[in-house]
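Board notes (copied after class):
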Amino acid sequence: MAESPSNSSDFLNDVKSIIGQNMANEQFGVSELADALHMSRSNLLRKVKKESNLSVSQLINQVRLGRAMELLRTSSLNVSEVAHEVGFNSTSYFIKCFREYYGYPPGEAGKRREEEPIPVTSTAGRRNYWAIGVALVVVVIGIVLYVLRVGLFHVNVVREKSIVVLPFKNESNDSSNVYLINGLMESTMSNLQKIKDLRVISRTSAEKYRNSNKSVPEIARELQVSYFLEGSGQKIGDQILLHIQLIDAATDRHIWANEYKRESKDIFQLQQEIANSIADEISLIITPEEEKRIQKKPTTDLVAYDYFLKGRDQQAIGKASNLHNAIGYFKEAIARDPRFALAYAEVAMSFYSLDLFHTDKKYVDEIDRYADQALLQDPKLEESLLAKAVSFLSKKEYATAVPYLEKALEYNPNSSTVISFLTDFYALYIPDTGKYLQYALRGLQLNAASTDSTTTSYTYLRLGNALVQNGFVDESLKYLDKSLDYSPNNPFSKYVRAFVRFAKTGDGVQARNELITEFNKDTTRFDILQDIGKISYYLRDYKGAYDYYKRFLRIRKAQKLDVYRHENLVIAYVLAQRGLKKESDELVTDYKAFLDADKSIYGSLGLSAYYAYLGDTQKATEQMKIFATQDNVQYWIILFLDKDPILERIVANAEYKKYFDEVKSKFWKEHDRLKVVLDENRLLR
């Protein structure tokens, strides 16, 4: 805690006098003091900071602890009685704050009557060590300069405003209250996530440290974060008791701490107050729009909100049975409050999760219905927009989902959930290598460490895949290896890594063998079957390619799957090499129908290949000319296009080659530009 100035102004004397008059009122805080002084909260914060170099919360605590010291030395009150007298409902919390401020516990105050009580952070307490301090600073500067010179680590000069909200601890003996404490943590994080000026680490990353014995600086290094928020609380009858501490991550120093005792009916006000206090302490810029979103109450029915928190707790577990339980709680909340937008949105998201890995989608109508209700009740709620986006994804209306996802991220710039959707969207549905890499990197920043190894593994997988699509082969392999370190059996990481190693070594036989190994582990993986056929095609092993494509086509037809139509021309070529003209022609026709509906940047490239297959060099070249105007093409195009058997005759054509060279030149220029940006931000190290 910073020291107060030696000469208090009249304003500070008035402030301290009002604090003294409300000493025993534990709920007397920044807002109450501003009201008593007939000032706005922001004006009070600025004036107190200017005249005392303290935040308002620090000043209130300082006055309380000063009065506590006086009572401990001059009265017969015990520590517990003094704690309550100066506005601390929890004796243990009072002891903690007192020790941090004075350097010894309150029980020793009487024994040290002759000593001048000096806060441990006071300059007075450091004066005897000034000369030693200067010498140490010189030594430290020398060490730092040496380390920087030899490049052992990198230093960020500008301190980033970033925070992790660690899991709140339930102090009650009643384990049934855990969902409430978790809900307070989730809501606190949600409010902070709405502030664009702050980077908020995701809940999955924070959960990893629920029972960790690691120190704050250790966790800070792992998460690359500047601040920590710790909390603990309990519910006693209709009251919520919550302790909150804001910690400087680098020094493990408590910047601010407060104790809240509120009626259950004031739970939303409590959540808003915590977010505002943190914003004040670390000087965040909160726009008026963000302030409105933070102050918005999700419901006016506390029973409905209690059902909602129970649903969220079940939803976080993620298993199918828990998702069904969550849906039940959310529906109970909606029955209590039919305008509860957040509950509608979470029902839609839960149904989407249940459908996610199933070919036969059972809940498309339910997702759509609940998403529409969420959007109807609150069109500016991030969760409503996300729910509507996934309703379009579930119906394969991909382009329509984009504005909803982007608007959701605008309303919640720290939402790792929305960023994950956008990452996958630009990888799978409307490919865009630049945006894919952008969102993959943002996802890594928010999911630096996850509650489970699987989540972290997929975070690294996304980044590895995004990097290779932008031509960063070695960097891609590094992150794919990290993905497998966290989850050695991640089937998609091994799948992608086989292709990336193919890109690096050019060894198609090895890549095919690696894919065959993965397929033998799970013979339902028709995606791997298709790619084993594809590599065999590039190796000109048309018999081997046919063997795998035949099995793939059988599965696709039996399961009525609308997948890999963009590969039908290659499959048709292989079938034609095996003398199966009728089947080949059917696939070529379907390929053209697919291209006619394709709105992606690759439509013209597909048409170029189509006309090359038909032997029409002029039209093939015209389409390549169109494709040369596109940006953000995948590295696989650059790597394999001139090795494609369908195109091997046309790539020798001078005009065609000119346009293909333009595609390659543009790709590598963008690659080099990206490399500079990534290096400047140390994102590839």
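Comment from the instructor: The beta strands are 162-165, 169-170, 199-200, 227-236, 239-248, 253-263. The longest helix spans residues 654-680.
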